[in-house]
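# nightly structure sweep
# worker-07 picked up a monomer target from the shared queue
# config: single-sequence mode, recycle default, output format = structure tokens
# input follows
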Amino acid sequence: MAISTISTLTSSLVSLSFSSQISQKPHVSSLSFTPSKPLSFSIIAASSVAAPAPVDLETADLKQLVKSRLPGGFAAQPIFGTGRRKTAIARVVLQEGSGKIIINYRDAKEYLQGNPLWLQYVKTPLATLGYESSYDVFVKAHGGGLSGQAQAISLGIARALLKVSENHRTPLREEGLLTRDARVVERKKVGLKKARKAPQYSKR
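# output follows
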């Protein structure tokens, strides 16, 4: 009798659990996902990838200007001067113009990073003679740093102005613009940290 009651109870429990599983319906709305802004990121990414690289038209224009003004290159010009400072070398060409200064196909202020001292080095020879707006200066410089190149350009301009007129020698000489500064960095010595700095002395 007990066995029959147990079997009837188990069958009723199984039927109840099966009916409860059938009655449960999946929530379709909970499974669907609608992103709030799916297109904004893709549009920004596409625009950033598709943007064309900027073209430096100003540098190209300056190169065209230099090539048109200097037929045959720097060496074929009658008014030129070579300046040196430390390890920097500058070849300078003067032509009658409005006062432009172009260094390595770039504007002098841009090339010398707007440094007022370096710009003063370049402009001093012309300012001494009052030629700030009378000549265009074309420079090809290499070696050393910007400070050495600026001083080399100054010497090159001063030497080129001597070819314009020998009367320029006296005012340029008085300002010290025709003197080649021969100072260079002293070489490092064996056993020392720099040219003259020795390592710390240790008694033991």
